[in-house]
Predict the structure of CFA46 protein.
Amino acid sequence: KEILEKYHYLFTRQWEGIIGNIRVPSQAEWEQLLTNCSAFLFYGMERFMSHILLNRLVAMNIPKCHLMILLDLVRSKQSYQRITNSGIHKSYLRLGIERPTETAMLLSLTGVRSIIANQWYTTLQENAERLEILSENLLSIGRTTGQTVHILQK
Protein backbone atom coordinates (compact mmCIF):
# COMPACT_ATOMS: atom_id res chain seq x y z
CA LYS A 1 0.00 0.00 0.00
CA GLU A 2 2.89 2.35 0.77
CA ILE A 3 4.34 1.86 -2.68
CA LEU A 4 0.97 2.43 -4.36
CA GLU A 5 0.61 5.68 -2.42
CA LYS A 6 4.21 6.75 -3.11
CA TYR A 7 3.94 6.25 -6.89
CA HIS A 8 0.24 7.07 -7.38
CA TYR A 9 1.04 10.13 -9.49
CA LEU A 10 2.84 8.01 -12.09
CA PHE A 11 1.37 4.99 -13.84
CA THR A 12 -0.39 3.55 -10.82
CA ARG A 13 -3.68 5.29 -11.61
CA GLN A 14 -4.02 2.85 -14.49
CA TRP A 15 -3.31 -0.18 -12.31
CA GLU A 16 -6.00 -2.59 -11.41
CA GLY A 17 -5.71 -5.63 -9.24
CA ILE A 18 -6.54 -7.46 -6.09
CA ILE A 19 -4.99 -7.14 -2.69
CA GLY A 20 -4.80 -10.71 -1.44
CA ASN A 21 -5.16 -10.03 2.25
CA ILE A 22 -8.65 -8.74 1.48
CA ARG A 23 -9.66 -11.87 -0.44
CA VAL A 24 -8.18 -14.62 -2.59
CA PRO A 25 -8.63 -14.02 -6.35
CA SER A 26 -10.72 -16.51 -8.28
CA GLN A 27 -9.28 -18.32 -11.31
CA ALA A 28 -11.41 -16.10 -13.58
CA GLU A 29 -9.96 -12.97 -11.94
CA TRP A 30 -6.40 -14.28 -12.40
CA GLU A 31 -7.12 -14.91 -16.08
CA GLN A 32 -8.72 -11.51 -16.63
CA LEU A 33 -5.81 -9.67 -14.99
CA LEU A 34 -3.22 -11.67 -16.94
CA THR A 35 -4.86 -11.32 -20.35
CA ASN A 36 -5.59 -7.59 -20.01
CA CYS A 37 -2.27 -6.33 -18.66
CA SER A 38 0.81 -4.78 -20.17
CA ALA A 39 2.66 -5.44 -16.90
CA PHE A 40 1.82 -7.80 -14.07
CA LEU A 41 3.05 -7.76 -10.48
CA PHE A 42 2.62 -10.69 -8.12
CA TYR A 43 3.69 -9.94 -4.56
CA GLY A 44 2.70 -12.86 -2.42
CA MET A 45 3.37 -15.97 -0.45
CA GLU A 46 4.80 -19.25 -1.73
CA ARG A 47 5.06 -19.92 -5.48
CA PHE A 48 3.09 -17.87 -8.03
CA MET A 49 2.17 -21.05 -9.93
CA SER A 50 0.56 -22.55 -6.82
CA HIS A 51 -2.18 -19.93 -7.18
CA ILE A 52 -2.97 -20.59 -10.86
CA LEU A 53 -4.52 -23.62 -12.53
CA LEU A 54 -1.81 -24.99 -14.81
CA ASN A 55 -4.13 -26.30 -17.53
CA ARG A 56 -5.77 -22.87 -17.81
CA LEU A 57 -2.44 -21.00 -17.87
CA VAL A 58 -0.90 -23.06 -20.67
CA ALA A 59 -4.01 -22.44 -22.79
CA MET A 60 -3.75 -18.68 -22.33
CA ASN A 61 -2.31 -16.28 -24.86
CA ILE A 62 -0.94 -13.18 -23.14
CA PRO A 63 1.37 -11.40 -25.60
CA LYS A 64 0.26 -7.95 -24.41
CA CYS A 65 2.12 -8.57 -21.13
CA HIS A 66 5.49 -6.91 -21.65
CA LEU A 67 6.73 -7.42 -18.08
CA MET A 68 5.85 -9.82 -15.29
CA ILE A 69 7.36 -9.31 -11.85
CA LEU A 70 7.03 -12.27 -9.50
CA LEU A 71 7.95 -11.37 -5.94
CA ASP A 72 6.93 -14.70 -4.51
CA LEU A 73 8.67 -17.51 -2.64
CA VAL A 74 7.94 -16.16 0.84
CA ARG A 75 6.99 -18.80 3.35
CA SER A 76 5.00 -18.55 6.56
CA LYS A 77 3.66 -21.33 8.73
CA GLN A 78 0.15 -20.79 7.31
CA SER A 79 1.27 -20.60 3.67
CA TYR A 80 3.43 -23.70 4.06
CA GLN A 81 0.44 -25.60 5.49
CA ARG A 82 -1.77 -24.46 2.60
CA ILE A 83 0.85 -25.52 0.02
CA THR A 84 1.42 -28.84 1.76
CA ASN A 85 -2.30 -29.60 1.81
CA SER A 86 -2.78 -28.64 -1.85
CA GLY A 87 0.43 -30.43 -2.86
CA ILE A 88 -0.89 -33.78 -1.72
CA HIS A 89 -3.06 -33.90 -4.83
CA LYS A 90 -0.29 -32.83 -7.23
CA SER A 91 2.10 -35.10 -9.08
CA TYR A 92 5.86 -34.78 -8.78
CA LEU A 93 5.95 -33.37 -12.32
CA ARG A 94 3.29 -30.77 -11.51
CA LEU A 95 5.20 -29.63 -8.44
CA GLY A 96 8.35 -29.36 -10.56
CA ILE A 97 6.61 -26.99 -12.96
CA GLU A 98 6.02 -24.59 -10.07
CA ARG A 99 9.78 -24.01 -9.65
CA PRO A 100 11.10 -20.58 -10.75
CA THR A 101 12.87 -21.63 -13.98
CA GLU A 102 9.98 -23.76 -15.15
CA THR A 103 7.51 -20.99 -14.29
CA ALA A 104 9.51 -18.49 -16.36
CA MET A 105 9.58 -20.91 -19.31
CA LEU A 106 5.81 -21.49 -19.17
CA LEU A 107 5.06 -17.77 -18.93
CA SER A 108 7.39 -17.10 -21.83
CA LEU A 109 5.57 -19.70 -23.92
CA THR A 110 2.23 -18.00 -23.19
CA GLY A 111 3.61 -14.73 -24.58
CA VAL A 112 5.05 -12.83 -21.62
CA ARG A 113 8.03 -10.90 -22.97
CA SER A 114 10.12 -10.21 -19.84
CA ILE A 115 10.05 -11.88 -16.44
CA ILE A 116 11.70 -10.73 -13.23
CA ALA A 117 11.41 -13.39 -10.55
CA ASN A 118 12.97 -14.71 -7.38
CA GLN A 119 15.06 -17.85 -7.74
CA TRP A 120 14.93 -19.03 -4.13
CA TYR A 121 12.89 -18.53 -0.97
CA THR A 122 13.12 -15.13 0.68
CA THR A 123 11.49 -13.03 3.39
CA LEU A 124 8.67 -10.49 3.21
CA GLN A 125 11.13 -7.76 4.16
CA GLU A 126 13.54 -8.66 1.34
CA ASN A 127 10.70 -8.71 -1.19
CA ALA A 128 9.49 -5.34 0.10
CA GLU A 129 12.98 -3.94 -0.47
CA ARG A 130 13.04 -5.44 -3.99
CA LEU A 131 9.64 -3.92 -4.78
CA GLU A 132 10.85 -0.52 -3.60
CA ILE A 133 13.97 -0.74 -5.79
CA LEU A 134 11.94 -1.94 -8.78
CA SER A 135 9.32 0.79 -8.36
CA GLU A 136 11.83 3.58 -7.93
CA ASN A 137 13.99 2.55 -10.87
CA LEU A 138 11.24 1.56 -13.31
CA LEU A 139 8.64 4.21 -12.45
CA SER A 140 10.46 7.23 -11.03
CA ILE A 141 13.82 7.14 -12.72
CA GLY A 142 12.69 5.40 -15.92
CA ARG A 143 15.45 2.82 -16.12
CA THR A 144 15.06 -0.21 -18.37
CA THR A 145 14.27 -3.61 -16.91
CA GLY A 146 17.83 -4.74 -17.63
CA GLN A 147 19.35 -1.78 -15.80
CA THR A 148 16.97 -2.33 -12.89
CA VAL A 149 17.76 -6.04 -12.61
CA HIS A 150 21.45 -5.18 -12.63
CA ILE A 151 20.84 -2.82 -9.68
CA LEU A 152 18.91 -5.58 -7.87
CA GLN A 153 21.82 -7.98 -8.35
CA LYS A 154 24.14 -5.61 -6.51
Q: What stands out?
A: The beta strands are 39-45, 67-74, 114-117. Helices lie at 2-6, 27-35, 54-58, 77-87, 92-97, 100-110, 124-141, 145-153.
